[in-house]
Amino acid sequence: NEVWVKLIGTFNAYNVLAIYGTAVELGMDSLEALRLLSDLESVSGRFQYIVSEGNITAIVDYAHTPDALDNVLKTINDIRTKNEQLITVVGCGGNRD
């Protein structure tokens, strides 16, 4: 079986596989699990993919550790075409971990 999900990135693929395996192991019908997984959407601020009317793509992510930021940038580089410009804006939330 195949499933198309709206979540982007290798890390999300691993998460979807873990959810699927857990759901089936706990007794959920495999096709129902796939149907539900195909409806998942990213949480606001977590690799949120936005395309403007001018066809400019923005990805918003609350990456607040060096490892998280590295994963976000690697995923962006994996999905973008080589002629697309990448501009990164990093903010500091303050009073966070």
TrEMBL record:
<protein>
    <submittedName>
        <fullName>UDP-N-acetylmuramoyl-L-alanyl-D-glutamate--2, 6-diaminopimelate ligase</fullName>
    </submittedName>
</protein>
<dbReference type="GO" id="GO:0016881">
    <property type="term" value="F:acid-amino acid ligase activity"/>
</dbReference>
<dbReference type="GO" id="GO:0005524">
    <property type="term" value="F:ATP binding"/>
</dbReference>
<dbReference type="Pfam" id="PF02875">
    <property type="entry name" value="Mur_ligase_C"/>
</dbReference>
<keyword id="KW-0436">Ligase</keyword>
<dbReference type="InterPro" id="IPR006162">
    <property type="entry name" value="Ppantetheine_attach_site"/>
</dbReference>
<feature type="domain" description="Mur ligase C-terminal">
    <location>
        <begin position="45"/>
        <end position="96"/>
    </location>
</feature>
<dbReference type="InterPro" id="IPR036565">
    <property type="entry name" value="Mur-like_cat_sf"/>
</dbReference>
<dbReference type="InterPro" id="IPR004101">
    <property type="entry name" value="Mur_ligase_C"/>
</dbReference>
<dbReference type="InterPro" id="IPR036615">
    <property type="entry name" value="Mur_ligase_C_dom_sf"/>
</dbReference>
